[in-house]
Each structure stands twice: as structure tokens, then as C-alpha cells.
Amino acid sequence: MSVAPTRVVGTPADRLEGRDKVQGEATYAYEYEVEHVAYATPVVSTIAKGRIRSIDSSAALAADGVIAVLTWENAPKLPKAEGELAILQSPQVSYRGQIVGAVVAESYEAARHAELLVRFEYDVEEHDVELRADHPTLYKPGKVNPEFPTDTEEGDVERALEEAAHAIDETYTTPTEHNNAMEPHATIAIWDGPSLTLYDSNQGAHAHRETFAKTFDMPPEQVRVIARHVGGGFGSKGTPRPHAVLAALAARHVERPVKLAVTRQQMFTLTGYRTPTIQRLRLGCDERGMLTAIAHDVVEQTSTVDEFAEQTAVVTRMLYASPNRRTTHRLARLDVPTPSWMRAPGECPGMYALESAMDELAIAAGIDPIELRIRNDPEIDPESGNRFSTRNLVACLREGADRFGWKPGSRRNGRTLAGLGVAASTYPARRRPSQAHARRNGDGTFTMRVGAVDIGTGARTVLAQIAADELAVELDRIHIEIGDSAFGSAPVAGGSAGASSWGTAVVRACRLLRAGDEDEVHVDTSDSADAEEPLAKHGFGAIFVEAHVDVDTAEVRVARALGVFGVGRILNPKTARSQLIGGMTMGIGMALMEETRVDGRLGAFVDQDLAMYHVPVNADVLDVDATWIDEDDPHINPMGAKGIGEIGIVGTAAAVANAVHDATGVRVRDLPITPDKLVGRI
Amino acid sequence: MEPFTYRRASSTEDALATHGSATRGAKFLGGGTNLVDLMRLGVETPSELVDVSRLECSIDAGEDGGLRIGAGVRNSELAADRRVRSRYPALAQALLAGASGQLRNLATTGGNLLQRTRCPYFQDVTKPCNKREPGSGCPAREGEHRNLAIVGHSEHCVATHPSDMAVALAAFDAVVHTSRRAIPLVDFHRLPEDEPWRDTVLEPDELIVAVEVPPLAVAARSTYRKVRERASFAFALVSVAAAYDGNDIRIAFGGLAHKPWRAFAAEEAIRSGASFRDAAEAELEQAKPLRDNAYKVELAARTLVRALEELS
Predict the structure, then answer these.
(1) Between 3.30.390.50, 3.90.79.10, 3.30.420.40, 3.40.50.300, what CATH number should domain B59-113+160-311 receive?
(2) For residue A242, what are the CA distances in angstroms to A153, A611, A642, B141, B312?
(3) Is residue A1 very low, low, confident or very high in pLDDT (cuts 50, 70, 90)?
(4) 3-class DSSP state of A266
(5) pLDDT in tens, B160-179
(6) CATH class of A152-177+274-429+535-678
(7) pLDDT above 70 (res A675)
(8) Does B64 touch chain A (CB under 8 A)?
(9) Which band of pLDDT confidence, cut at 50, 70 and 90, is reported for residue A63?
(10) Of B2, B229, B231, which is closest to A674 when you measure between CB atoms?
(11) Which of A73, A187, A539, B194 is least surrounded by Cβ atoms within 10 Å, i.e. has the fewest?
(12) What is the pLDDT of residues B65-87, one digit of tens each?
């Protein structure tokens, strides 16, 4: 079986909505014009733990334009709400920055002003927000995200490490990181009798509909979620956030439509973040570099509100084989906002540690780091024993080494040291059930309706390309409508599974339309989503980095980065390249600057805007490129594609750290690699 | 944000009169790139904004060969000025090292000097800060202070001044002209001592009208080096403005203190024939780093040595 040839798929089509976006015509959630709308703004806690003793809303209520102040004392009850979404249901405060109220006003400005006038008195309790490897609350969660065993063990790791020809035992840490999509979260909530419509910036209209229905204890059919244009999510818009519940609560309370925009500062506590991690990696190998032991022990955090168990070591179970293997995850319950999804949750921090450790082992064993990885590339998935649908890590490493000019070893140019680093990258290739609707319009055009959300990836364009091929028409004959839970159910834009899942439904709908006499068809792929032979399905890649380090100031710049990926068929090389280099750029940020600092005494995040929380700017991204090898994998979806939204970030931080070590001989094991950790050591 | 009124001043006298008649703390408005942000955060709550950005907008040659820079001159215009680029290159470089193109197009010379610290505690009204709320405490001392001061700080405040431009001006013996007096730039900004809420010696009803840069031959051989983990659009961890022609010398540091830090001790050491490294250490002897920012001592020394080597 192989994938059919294509005509429109595989071409670098421009984004269908690109012109609308650059001309300001694309309507984002907050921008819908709604009659008689009111504006809500969250009021958030200023303590990390305790109980609200008293609330004085009088000054806020007396301010011009204020309609209502919501607190736990007067908010509608939500007995079915869970975790972070159970807002304003009790006087308990579980973290600093938690929603404890809302001001609803005639204008955004009036609401923001009155927000400062609501007075809370608290009974403050002692808090703990700092993750430590020996934290007294560490416990073993029942599973790690989404449904993986918490720990795995086979063979005798301790003994294998003792007997290994070469071994390393190092601890790596990653800090709290925030997603920071360009478009902050925003919601408009409109009640019409028992029905609720939400214009919301999110990654999945149907997933949000289901959660809202549950939270407000109403049938899903009475909830409609619209998300036609979304300015980035990176996981932070994958599941409903508390502000959206607040908008709906406020709208119900004042019996008017309500608009709510999360501020950049509020995003740091209300919309999720990547847990900090403390990861101990132990690797052992024989004289030839064959791994004899792999142990990956992870400590990370969750909150007292909910459990979020990042699957940090899960990737270690499948990347390399060894007779003796062990992975563990332990969580500390802290007085913090609940961690959430951030681009490549699990794989991203886990691979930073694993691929740094592989570099250290290669040096210890005196083997080239690419060669070490090639020698340890397994035939079958070491965890499940299943065959890989396709696994082209070795081909990516070889192709990349050739293109990049792989020749490690520190070089000095004036006051700059240059070095090269490499790391593997991988991400699961998934497909989820999806529905799609296709209509023949009778004028040579076709309309596709899919409940997909385009969070900036180019999904809308790619789905239209797929339809054009299946219907054998030009791309401009396809009208595509997405981002609406009124359409057939479709999965979230997450887990790098969007195009794979929605595209499969589009293919089926188009084929059904062509095969029959009907002018309108509706398909559902849920019957076939899992009915395939058990295979290990993953994308693979290799990231190469040239780092330049100033010997005086210890500033690190990535002069060159190249990613070579084996990710099935590329549906649109223009949007695919953007996804891959975007992921790599985010990985450069993770390596060199991204960090949300924590103040243990105040129980607070210190950084809460983009002036303090640094992400790369253009000047940091000098020569970043992504390419891919030809890969024909028919086992995931009929397009032969694998997801590409996350694999770019996965190995990049390790590649940067390895390049910095190659340049300087200094190994920084605590991200980010900032000048304070290097100066005076080079 | 608190409600406020806005008025554009027609002259310096008009600006001062308007400012004086406001009921609750009027503020002069330049480009607004810092003040408006702080108003949005609730850190600044003026009842009235008096826009002075259009009053003094020219760069004039002084009779003695220096430059008189109007307080309303935009940062991008000053950085592009041919006289600045050839006679005071470190000043042009410092301006271009700051902020982003968009911000520099708005930010004014006077406003740049009056920027508030970017200490994260100062910018969050829910956290204590002696500079914002006298007597509330300084959580940065025991908390997050990797990017904060190593010299001249007090138990009340460890903030740094964020300006790049002011560092070059401090090195070049610039003078701030206000509505009532002339103040050497090195005396314009204060150390926090026990009044950290006072960034400068400016009185409430005093307005900057111009900055004078005197003629200074050595300034033609000058450089500005800003160290930061991000290549652009980031405040300095450490910065150095240095002018050196083998004979005369001027040095100022940024990112180390509550004010642009003119390195008189290092200058003196070099005039006495010390090595660059010894001169740097002579200056940094007085450093009192906090728990997590001792790296700045070494970083500042290395950055200064590097700048002077490049000028030699």
C-alpha cells in the first residue's frame, strides 16, 4: 500500500485567509460586534493560599458604568464544574492570580478601572510554590498524560549502570515556561434563553462545547462555540480556561452578552504553562556504545486544584532500546496554577534531558553523537514491541549531517567560540475521529464544512488542498468553512493531529460525494480511527545547531539551525516549513531565554509580560531552516501525512545546549542558558 | 487605569501652569512609551497628562561645538543625526540598542531620562515595592534580583535604571537643562538611599527642556556595548559606554545601579596607567552583589575590558 499521487496537495499554496489577516479583515473572537454587549474583567487573588474573609464591592459598584460585581457570594452556582473551571464557587484561594471576582461594566475601560476598586480581605495561609527534588509532598500519580503508565521498569538498571563501560548520571532542569500566543485569550458569551453561544479563541470548538455543557450542566446541543480565526494557541487554548467560564457566568448574571479579554499579565496565571521539571538521567553503554541502561526519573509539579501529570519521560520509552530501562514521574502538589499543555508537552522537556544526556554519553564513550544514535536506533518500538509505521531518524541524522556540514569541535573566531550540536526529535503521529460535510454547489464549486480550528498553522488551506485533489478541481473551487461547533464533531487542533484527523474526514467526504448522486454528504471517521494493525507511529527528525558564544560576555547566539524531518508527506511546503521553523525557534527560546521566575515568598510568578518573559525576536533567528526527507507512510491517514506542529521544538533545546558545550566545554544543565550561568567559566 | 484628562501644552510656561493647576498629580507626557504602560498597570495614576512632546524638538549646534538636544527629540531622530553619529558614536549606538524601532520613533529625549525601573516588583501593584509604595518593602532583595543592582543600592531598593541613552550621556558629561536650572547628567539621577521613590533630583513642577552634550574630542572614538541574553529588544544585563583615544577616557556603566554609573575610579586608574582589567576592578571594588547577581561584577569587568580593547 502506498499513498496516491497528488496535484494540489504538496504545492506551496498561500494561506486562504492570509489577505484577510494582513488587511485586518479576519474577525477574531473579541472583535465580533454584538448588540447591547457588556464588558467583564477578572479580579484575581493577591495571595497564594487562604480564604476570602470579606469582600467590599461598594466602591466598584459606585463607579461610572459598572453594572455588576461578581464574587463567590453572588455568582451562579456550578455544581458540575471541575478543577480550574469551578470559579467563584467558594471562598477558597488556591493560588495567586486565581479568579476571585469579575467586574461587568458598560465599557472595557470602566471595567478595568473598577477592577482596582474591589476590596478583598483574606485569611492568609502559608503557601509553597517552589518545586524541589526532595519536596515532601512528592507522590506518584495514577497515570501521566493522557493515559500512560506513571512508571516503567524492565531489567536491572542499577546493575547495568555499575557494569557499563561508560555511564553518565546527571540532573537537568527546565523552568516554568508560558505559551504566550500572540492573540491573548478572549471570549464573548451570549445567552439566549437556555442556549449559550461563545465566540472564543480556542483550539477546538467541539471540545470546548462539551466542557461548557458539562460545566453549566446543559445538553451540548444548547452550546455553540465559534472560533473562526485564532492567533496562536500552543496548547494554552486546547482546553477551556477559567476566564471563558467567567464570561458565561457574567453574561448569565447581568442577562446581557459579555465580552472578556484576558490581559497579557493575566495569561501568566489563567491560561496554563509548562511545569518546571527536574530530571535525573542515567545512561550506560558498552564499549561499542550500545546502550545497556536507560533511566529517566522526573520530578514536576501540579496544583491543589487539579492534577496535571506531564508525560516527560514517556518519550524515553520508545526512542532508544536497552535491556535495562526505567522511567518514573513524581509530582509535587504546590499552591500554583495548574500546569497545562504547551507545545509538545512531555516530549519537549523530556527530550531536552535525554538528548543532552546522549551527548554527554557520546563524549564519555568517545563516539560521535550521531553515530551513537545510529547504533542505538531500534528495529521495533522498545516499549510496545510493535513495528514502526516508518522510522527515519537515521536517514534524518545522515541527511542533516551532510547538509549542515557536521564537523563538531570548538572553533575560535576573534572573541567568539563556535560549536555544533545535534539532537534527535520525535513526536507521535496520531489520527482522531472526525466528521466532515461536503456539498456540490452546482456552479463548479464545492463547500466543505469541518469543525476544525486553524490556530495559525494553515489548516484551513491544507484541508482545501486535500479537497481539491479528491474532487479533481482547482483550489479556488473549494469554499471551506471551519471553526464552528455547529458543524460535525471534530477533534482539537492539538497533539499534532489536526490535519491528519480532519483531512481523513475530508478525503472520505469528497470520495463519497464523487461516488454518489447526492449533492451533500456527511461522514464520520470514528468507525475506523482505531481499526488498524498495531504499529508504533511517530514522526522523527534531527536538529543541528551552530552556536556562537562570546568569550567575554557569555552571550549565546544561534548562528545556524537546521531541522531535517521524516514526517510523512508534506501537504503544503510553505505552511509546513513555517510550522517546523516556528517550533525550532520556540526551542531556541527555550534553550536561551524562556523562563518564568518564581518568588517563593510572595507565592507569585515574577515575570508577567513579554518585556520580562523573553521569546526570540528576529535578531535571534539568523539562519533557521527546515527540510524533510521523502517518506511514504500510508498507515496514519490517506494523505500519508504525519503531524508537524510540535516536532520542531522537541529536540532543539538539546541541540543548542550540546552546541554550547561543543563551543565552550561548559555544560549548562539548567535551562535557559543565560550569561549568568556561563560568564567566567569559558 | 484611572480616568485622566489630556492637554497639549503650547509652551513650556503653559505646560508648567497646567501642571501646577492639576488636582491630583499631573504628569508630563513625552512619547508615552513607558508612562502609558505604567498607567495601564495602575502604577502611575495621574489625573492629567500634559503633552510636552512637541515643544522642544530640534537638535542645535552649540556655540562651543557641542549639541543642544531638545527634550522632545525622538530617539530615532537623535540616533540618525549625522553629528551624533560622527562625534558621539556611542550615543547613537546606545539609542539603537534600546527598545524597538517603533518605540524609538515615539520615545523622546526627556522621556528617556525619566523612564522608571523595569524591576518586575515595581510594575505589579499587587506586590510590595518601596519605590512605588513607600514603606511596603523591597521583595527583590530576597526574591528575584538577577538583573538588579550591584552598586549604589540600599536596603530599601535594588532597582536599576533602564536607559541606554543616559549611559552614553553620562559618559559624555552631558548637562540636563530644565525650566529652572542646569544639572550635570551624572547628578540628575539619584541613588535610592532611603527615598527610592525619587528617581531624579527633578522637582515636581520642573520640566526638562533640553540635554546639552558638550564638545568632547575623545567622544569621536567611543563605543556602546550592551549585554543581554536576547539579541534585541531587551534591557541590559550590563552595558558600557566608553570613549578612549589612548589619552583621554570616559566610561559609564548601565544595568548596575539605580542611575547610569559613571566609572570615575576606572577612568582615574587608566589615566594612572593601570591595565584595563585593573581599572575595571578598581571601579567594581565597591560592588555589593546580592545573592544571585554576583555574575554582574565579572560581566561588567569583562565587558569594559572588551570595549576598551576594541577602542585601542
Answers:
(1) 3.30.390.50
(2) 38, 25, 32, 34, 59
(3) very low
(4) helix
(5) 999 999 999 999 999 999 99
(6) alpha beta
(7) yes
(8) no
(9) very high
(10) B229
(11) B194
(12) 899 999 999 999 999 999 999 99
**What mean pLDDT do residues A585-599 have?**
98
**How close A576 gets to chain B, by Cα (Å)?**
26
Contacts of A509 (CB under 8 A, 6+ apart): A436, A437, A438, A448, A521, A522, A523
Cell numbers for B180, please give them: 529652572
Same fold, A32-126+182-232+237-270 and A152-177+274-429+535-678: yes
> Rounded mean pLDDT of chain A?
97
Assess whether pLDDT exceeds 90 at residue B305: yes
Domain borders along chain B are 5-51, 59-113+160-311
A675 contacts on B by Cβ (under 8 Å): 227, 229, 237, 295, 299
| Nearest residue in chain A measured CA to CA from B302 | A552
Smallest Cβ–Cβ distance between B120 and the set A116, A557, A607 belongs to: A607
Domain formed by A18-27+432-527, architecture: 2-Layer Sandwich (3.30)
* A/B interface, count of CB pairs below 8 Å: 99
Per CB-CB distance under 8 Å, the chain B contacts of A607 are 120
Distance, C-alpha B136 to centroid of its chain: 25
Which residues of chain A does B125 touch, with a Cβ-Cβ cutoff of 8 Å? 116
Name every chain B residue with its beta carbon within 8 A of the beta carbon of A674.
Answer: 229
Q: How confident is the model at residue A4 (pLDDT cuts 50, 70, 90)?
A: confident
Question: Three cell numbers at A289?
Answer: 556504545
